[in-house]
Write a structure and sequence with these properties.
3-stranded parallel β-sheet; alpha/beta; binds fe (ii) ion; 44% helix; 242 residues
Length: 242
């Protein structure tokens, strides 16, 4: 399986607190059947001001340490970018890392606030499309505005967004509303990716196998493979080939 959303890099955001935890997370992932992992630290203006060079240096360091430990998980890096008015200038200055490519377009993992849908989100996504940037919305099922009004999902889809669920939402670990929406989106064919959003060994480990089983029971083995292997590999192939 390919995990496209993880906070595995040490001491760079609210994910792994140090190298020891990063390596422990990688071992958990390997045992769970994860072969490829994309580190997606937060870029959240004013809170986590991570740059491409800091992320890449951190990745190279973790890759070397993982190799020394005999861990066999391929690693690449991008970012989970929080929607913010400052992003336009960052896009124009090529300061945001992309999570991959689909049909000749760069793809951005664009995080919405957890509490609400910010004003102008649609205009911003339309502007990104004009810059040849396609958007993946991570964990839409955990946004409280979306939980109370599923119209937002339809609207985001119309804007050309793809969706990535958090694996543990499917298992009910983010509450009933998130689980209900996650399962409904799966049944409606609205999900493109499932990822762990791993942050820590105890709180949010990089485990995908349980959710994959649930998806296979719900939609069949073929569809589970599409969401956990084929789609994420197609998206991130360019990251792992570098
Ligand atoms: Fe995340």
């Amino acid at each position: 399986m390919i995990d496209i959303h993880t906070h595995i890099l040490p001491s760079i955001d609210d994910g792994a607190k140090d190298l020891t935890e990063s390596l422990a997370l990688l071992k958990l992932a390997e045992n769970d059947g994860i072969t490829h992992m994309v580190a997606t630290p937060h870029i959240h203006v004013g809170r986590f001001n991570n740059s491409i060079s800091v992320i890449n240096d951190n990745l190279a360091n973790l890759q070397q340490n993982a190799k020394n430990e005999g861990i066999n998980v391929k690693l690449a890096a991008a970012a989970e970018v929080r929607l913010d008015v400052e992003l336009m200038a960052m896009v124009m200055a090529n300061k945001l890392p992309f999570i991959g490519e689909i049909a000749g377009k760069n793809v951005l993992l664009l995080e919405l606030p957890h509490s609400h849908m910010p004003q102008g989100y649609d205009k911003f996504i339309q502007w990104l499309a004009k810059q040849n940037i396609r958007v993946i919305i991570p964990h839409p099922e955990r946004n409280r505005d979306i939980q109370s009004n599923l119209y937002y999902i339809e609207h985001l889809k119309q804007l050309g967004c793809d969706f990535q669920l958090t694996a543990s939402s499917i298992e009910g670990e983010w509450g009933e509303s998130a689980q209900t929406i996650a399962l409904q989106m799966l049944k409606d064919g609205l999900v493109n990716y499932v990822a762990s959003d791993a942050h820590s060994v105890k709180r949010r480990p990089p485990i995908l196998s349980q959710a994959r089983k649930t998806v296979a029971q719900l939609l069949g083995e073929e569809q589970a493979t599409t969401l956990f292997v084929t789609n994420p590999l197609q998206l991130t192939e360019c990251l792992f080939n570098d």
